[in-house]
Fold each of these.
Amino acid sequence: MARAKPLLPADPPDQRQLIAATALFGLSALPLLFDLDARVSAFIVGMLALQGLGIRFPRLRPGMLVLGLLTLVGGLNVIDAYRGIAGQGPGTALLLSMVALKLLEVRNKRDLRVLLLVLGFVLVLQFLFDDSPWRLAAMVALLVGAFALLRDLTLPAHPPARAARARISLRSAAVMSAQALPLALVLFVFFPRLDAPLWDLGIENPHAVTGLKDWLEPGSIKDLVVSGEDVMRVRFDRAPGMPVERMYWRGPVLWHAEGNRFSPARPGDFPEAVVDVEPLADPLDYTALLEATDQHWITALDWPLAAPPGAELTADGQVLADQPIDERRMFRLRSATAYRVGALSLEEEAAALALPDTVTARMRALAASWTADDPPPETVVERALAHFNEQPFRYSLLAPDMGPRAMDDFLFDSQVGFCEHYAAAFTLLMRSAGIPTRIALGYLGGELNPYSGDYIVRQSEAHAWTEVWLGDKGWTRVDPTAAVAAERVDPDGALARLGAGAPARFRLDDRSVLGRAVYDLHLMLDAANVAWRQWVIGFSHFKQQQILRNLGLGALRDLGLVALMALAGAGIMLAWGLWLGHPAAPADPVRAAYAHFQRKLRRSDARLARHPEEGPLDHLARIEHLRPDLAATAAPVVQAYVRLRYAPASPTASGLALLRERVRGFRPGRKGAWRGGSTPERG
Amino acid sequence: MPRGSQLAQGLRLRLRRLRQRLTGWRPHAVPRSAEAATHHRRIYILPTKAGLGYGLVLLATLLGALNYQNNLGLLLTFLMISTALVSMHHCWFQLLGLSVRAREGLPVFAGERARFPLSVRDSAGKARPQLAVVGAAPFALAADGEVHLELTRPTRRRGPLALDRVILETRYPFGLFRAWTELRPFAEVLVYPKPAARAPQPPMLARFDQQGRGDLGVGAEDYVGPRAYRPGDSPKQLDWKAYARERGLVVKQFGGDQSARVWVDWEAVPSPDVEHRLSLLARQVLDADALNYSYGLRLPGVSIEHERGGRHKHRCLAALARFDAGAPGAEPGAEPGSAQA
């Protein structure tokens, strides 16, 4: 094959094309500018301004030397702003800076084409920063724009009018993108996903939120409660059969007390600990969609019975993922809501009784006052809860900052605290009384979205409670915060001002009609948001296997996905091929009628089809030769067509009607219906 | 023959067939008629450089999005991939249902470019937004439309030059793919021998010629009288004043004397090389025509009687172009046969 002369000459793009490319890049860079270092953003904006100037006054376009200098400045700017180029922020900053410079360097259409192709990177990069549907819609629109500009670049140099040009380009880009949608969706559903990253370039997850820590100090939960951010969404396989206010979502379990801080068990602390849990009711199966926490634990309802793949269940009832949850992930979980947990190793008992040196004599004395008559542990717990209830303890976010002996201050002086105060103080008192006690961190309650059926748990529901060892009954949950009388919960002051939800939850009944409508809208949006997260953002390897299983192809695993992808993809492409290859109906009614006649002939016998180079009369002669039986009916049609088509006068309505009528009356019959004498071979 | 070499030969044959299939080089695949239609088996498509670059970008975004399990990134990447694939289909189908008709072009001298008039016609009732014939400017084609263009080819040797092949190509819609097809519509352009820079004066005719006109004893290039126009007469000879007086097209006849009657004669131009000899003869024909001599042409096996005018010139040059030194009756030294046009 001889080297073809280039069809697209390397001529300079016209001004409109430059403006369009600049706008496309500017718009796709715009949302990223807010995520980048201010200096890098300033550089990119500067380059865009320079480009605008260069378009308006072509003489001001920077030369090669200036461009070289600007490249150096841009690169150093990124390195200086980020102290390196590794990672998501600096990488994006460098790419955007360089693409902005490439924009300045565009000299011919080839450069512009390269720029448009690289724009694909910039569009995909966006989703590292934002995964909302709006961002996707914006990027798809920009992608169509980029394709339109690519189309414009292939248009001949002698253009139609500007408006027509833009319309042609945009239309064909939009049409092709729309036609690409089915295939893109097939690829999206069936393209096998990875279970875990192949490599890690230090791209941070954009969605890490501040959540529970795996330790507890007075005040550590208070910060969360004012945060309205989501923690998880849960969908139960069947109705859970318990009110949402009673749902304890279990996170880390804290054993060790040092100073004012409680911390969880370290690996190897309890070598003899065993999982020994006996569900007392049907367990609940559910799917939990967890937000990124950068922590290992997977918050689960009450007492988890099994760990999902990639996680393990500990003896103290935590589900710990092997990898920190650094992005939104979905897990299948199973929990018991009524259970008996009954195993306590010697190491565990020792840890659950250990007291820090912050326990004061007053606290010991209080604990001793409950155990003087050597009651069973249940009675001690009851007495302690009664103490919290009877003393003027108040429940408030605005607990005063406390010193090193915070628990002593809280119990005897301020008596104002939040759940962490109650849990920590209660634990220390129980341990002083000789009852093994530990703290569980997590969330209490949530909100049921009636539109999606999901339970939404937010950071504002963060909670701390305790578990005491009651001999035969095993570990039993005790929530000392609940012992504080409801009227002492600070109802309006702090919580309302801070917008916090728990435990003084919003009550729907209190709302006005308008407020309720807004709230409903909010819930509907939330349902849509959940669907988006579940089916688009959270679509994973797991979901794919689920789809395969539903199709009965679960055993094929990734192979099945690839096969389905290939089948569906090939089917779609074949469909487009057939559609494109099908001749379009002629707009001219005379030709349309003639084409109808041709179709009838073709269907009757392939040999009767008109050859491309054959005129209508030659064709008729051939028909008469091949099928003498058709001569009488075919000839009037062809004659009428020739008269309409080649006569000097423009076709008349009556002539057209005649042609149509004759075409309608033409019945060549099917191949199988041939009479023996009608074929020349036999006749 | 050892089995191994047999096997190797078989493999080689297969490879050659495969290569021929892939490159579309099939010498007898297309019949030689003036009109050639595209055929789906002979439409080829490959990514352009831009398409390959786009492929790299897409591969990078695909791997990145897969690795970081970024579903939106994947979705956009798949949309880009699918759009490129759909555009590939559109690109290929641009070339289906087209036919190219070539016509004979005007004769040229060797070394000039031969021009073949070409028309591209849509026979599938579909508009083609962007098409090109390699070597000509891109164009668009309306449904059932026809576009006329001209294809030029360099010429080196005299004789009839057949149009070798017409490559129809398109990069519609985004320039990511190039589809092309090779068509071989039959058309010829006659290539005259390249005239030599200068040639010896042809021998003047010594004897009186009964057929001669205008030898009335007056000097060369004298006006002899009017005559009715015949097709092929040079416009230089037209009597424009007579035309202005509405006497119709009249040619002014100039009578040459005996010396203005020449033979452009193969035998009179001694040169060992046939082609050089022909180029000298071509120059003589052109000179004689420029001087408005009445001239005849004698080649081995060909003889053309004395005549003037453009049509005559083309007849002589065509004879030179088609001269076949190896043809019967054309052996060197053979007597010129009877006149044959």
Amino acid sequence: MYQSNAWQPTATITMLKARAQLLRQIREFFYARDVLEVDTPCLSLASISDPHIEVLTSQTRTLGQEVTYYLQTSPEYAMKRLLAAGAPSIYQLGKVFRAEEIGRRHGIEFTMLEWYRLDFDHWQLMSEMDDLLSCLMGQAICSERLSYAQAFERHLGLNPFQASLEALQQACHQHTEFGLEENDRDTLLELLFATVVEPNIGQQVPCFIHSYPASQAALAKQQIDEHGQAVAARFEWYWRGMELANGYHELTDACEQQQRMQQEMAERAQHKQVWRQADERLIKALEKGLPECAGVALGVDRLLMLLLDQEHINHVMPFAGANV
Amino acid sequence: MASYSTSELRSGNKVMVDGDPCAVLDNEHVKPGKGQAFNRIKLRNLKSGRVWERTFKSGDSLETADVMDTDMEYLYTDGEFYHFMATDGSFEQHGADTNAVGDAAKWLKEQETYVVTLYNGAPFAVQPPNFIELEVTETDPGLKGDTANGGSKPATLSTGAVIRVPLFINIGEVLRVDTRTGEYVSRATGK
């Protein structure tokens, strides 16, 4: 991939000035709200258990010993360890890394804004995100809020919790020619969401999708919604066809967290994915006690793309793609 | 059997889908916020020419299709097969049936070079050159002087193809034709 003549930046200098201003405004926003900036390490001795995210690693020798460092995919575990150790509400603005395909909206390295608010639930956090965006845009923004079920009913005419497996397979097949032999409900739901729902939400104002199926909780609490349905206290933020942020009313139960981690590691093993050291220090921190909080991770480069009307993520980063 | 991972497929790769050889035109990575990643792959079915999109889980594999494009010169037809010979000096010959030749049949001219697609070593598609020069064997008499104004008339060419030509064209003239659209381009120069 390396070429000696690919020396130039992939963003214009004008774009980089806008980027610098955005970073400054974000810091001012949190400073004004008394949220503490932290910068946890990029390199960690352990990593996440998520079966769908691949991690970059780096090998070196330290004190005569071969050591594998994992590049952080998000500062989530480290920030929660800080919270369990008594930190107040905190935010981090920094680089994260994923061993993924690069493309129009994906880079292997990107800038993430992640923050945790003590004693917030995810509804309060969504409101604060609207405040942040209003501040960045200089105009009042009020995002739409749709539950996962409402979004499916509106754009696919089916209820994601009640539809039979066969109905999901048929719907998936109709839209993508995939799915007749897929027996995993979440896989079918995720594909339907990505191909049918996502392009149709948040076109005018941004849209929060909340109350995900409990099986897609990741690191969120599980709750019973007003229809008696078990859902995850998780939300995602979509704007003009782009996924911008993913947040939770954070799971604080160490046992539940440990079960989910073990289940994900088992899933990785079952699919013969590369083994990695899952960071069990998160469990230890939860055992010590994670305060009630809500947290969210936001893709800063993607936000910049939307604010500046850029089609490609490379155009808002100093160096990207084959120029890094 | 060799195979490609769906996440590694690139434009130009040839793979088997639903039992037919297909050419990959585009591969878009679909990654939900959390969860399974997919690849949305645009394909051209090399048998039917149909272009469509299929979605696969990232990491699933697709069998490679043993498909090769070869330049071949058209020799003759025996009524059942159309015979071609490789132009790479190997003199390798192949007989293509009417299915394989398809619409290209009306553009087959001896000593002209075609792209013959071999699938498992046998021809299954024939693509004519974009432009071909053919003689008019039948058409109404030409109208002298009418070289500019729009009118047209049908003309039968030496291969049997019937195309619309300007009114001034006569039997025996050699025309340059666009095989993709079946349209008259000009009178042939040279030859």
